[in-house]
User: Fold Ig-like domain-containing protein from Ilyodon furcidens.
Amino acid sequence: KTTPIPPVILDSSNCIITASQINCSCETVGSSPMLQWLVDGQQVNQSNNIIVLNEPLNSTYLRSIITVNEPQAKHLSSLFCFSFNSVGSAGKQFWVDCQEKSADKKLMFVSIATTFLFLAVVCVFLFVIRFLKLQSNNVKNTIAEKRKKVPDTEEDAIYVNTRNLRQAK
Assistant:
């Protein structure tokens, strides 16, 4: 006789979220696994807006798919897949926060674009300041070098005793 195996939720379990619908699949393996969904911590009741389909492949594999229609109307934030059998349990949380994602994405895009534009303007401004400072330093250095090359044209004053010059004549 085989030893019972506790359920394990597979990494292939995931969600696809659109504005009008959430589709999540939960795949579990183990000895005769059962599966239950929780929506925001509450047990799921089948309705027109929430549909659960279970697809057993064999006695050790079970896939369950939950579809939530109009999730934004429910202010849905999480789904939880809970798999269990006689020897254990496993669970996986799906965060789906559906409150106006498109408006949030637009706001985030505008914020990022504004920040990028601001940083670009600041970088250009700093580049211009640096360029002007380098130009100013180059002009000052050129003037200083020209002053060094040009000899001082002032002559030293020569004092002559004109009395002695007259006597020499």
